[in-house]
Every structure is written in C-alpha cells, then in structure tokens.
Amino acid sequence: MALEVELRAARVRYGPLEALHGVDLPIAAGAMTVLLGRNGSGRTSTLHALAGVAPLASGSVRWYGGSGRARDITAMDTFRRSRLGIALLPAEQGVFPSLTVAENLTLLSGAGLPAALALFPELEPLLSRTAGTLSGGEQRMVALSRVLTGPGRLLLLDELGLGLAEEVVARVHTALMALVAAGRTVVLAEQSLPAAPAAPDLVFELRRGAVAAAYET
C-alpha cells in the first residue's frame, strides 16, 4: 500500500492538555480514509497535526506523496505543507470574510470559479457579496469549493457537512469519489460513517486521543 502521509507516535498538547497520545496513522495514497469519533476524540487534532496547524509535542509527520520515499515534514509550517499539496477544510470558518465570494473562489486560480459554480450553482447569485455576510451553509460551500477545485493532492476535511442540506452533502461526496478515482487522497473527520455515495476505503476510530480500531470497508 503506497502512503500519502503518516503520523508516527504523534503527540499534540494544548497547554497541559494532551489531545493526541502517541498516534500512529498511515494514510493510504489515492484512497478515502475516515477518522471516526465523537467530539473530543482527537479527530480535529489529527487533521491539524497533518496540516501543520497543531505542532507536535513529540513524534513525527512523514510525507510520501505516493512516491514510496518518506520525507520528514514535522518542522515544516502550514504554508510549506500547502505547497506540497496538503489542503485543510477546518470545521470552523474556512473563508476570508472581508473578500467577496468571487475573490475567495479565484484566490488560488481563476480557473477554479467555473468548477466551483458547477458544483455549487447556489453560489452564482452571491459572487459579489462579501463572504462574511453569508449564512453558515453558504460559507461552507465557498470553503469546500476552494478545497475541492484547488490543486491539493491530500484533502483534509473536518465535518464537511456542517450547515449543509443532505442533497448538497451527497453532491460533495460524489465529487470526492471522483477525485479519489483520479488519484487524490481524501481524509474525512466525522462523527459517523458518511452515507452513500461516499465509500471510504479505510476507517480509523479514535477515542480519547488514541486510535481504538482500524478496518477496511
């Protein structure tokens, strides 16, 4: 199994609180992986450790990029990891609130705008509005558009369906499956297994900052 990225004995601390307790987590390249767990299980901290948002107290992050050769990126900041192709959709605000919707969608590439509107036609009448004035669900679509239409090869998505209707979530899952089929790697952090059409390849169940179970679906 070719790997995209891997956590080895990763520990994340926020002050005196340790959120991850020596987590080993291999993420397969070109596959959809689900990090399953309740709030406080360590799902978000795991994504943040992979993206460089949360520095490790100990352990390491190893980047493979599907090449078979490991590169230690533990000390690499978020910006440099994004240059490798790591894209994070946080559970909290994922837009630039002072920019318009159109500016948010063209920030990485003007070519992303048509693809974003094809996925979320609901955004077309909102292009001239500042993103901070949108509803939570509308902001989520803007944030998802930036990740799904961007160049990232490893997509880290934290509870992607927050504020979205079931029909929209199903549309996003279809888009994710197409990206995986094209060779991208997707990691979803969820409280429950995603419904069809999403079909995860691997599931890691987290409890209290540790991997409690791992299985293929």
From TrEMBL:
ABC transporter domain sequence ranges: 5-217
Organism: Streptacidiphilus fuscans
Pfam families per the UniProt record, alphabetical: ABC_tran (PF00005)
GO BP term (any one): L-amino acid transport
Entry similarity comment: Belongs to the ABC transporter superfamily.
ATP-binding recorded as keyword: yes
Signal peptide: none
Domain of life of the source: Bacteria
Keywords: Amino-acid transport, ATP-binding, Nucleotide-binding, Transport
PANTHER family for this protein: HIGH-AFFINITY BRANCHED-CHAIN AMINO ACID TRANSPORT ATP-BINDING PROTEIN LIVF (PTHR43820:SF4)
UniProt name for this protein: ATP-binding cassette domain-containing protein
GO molecular function, one term: ATP binding
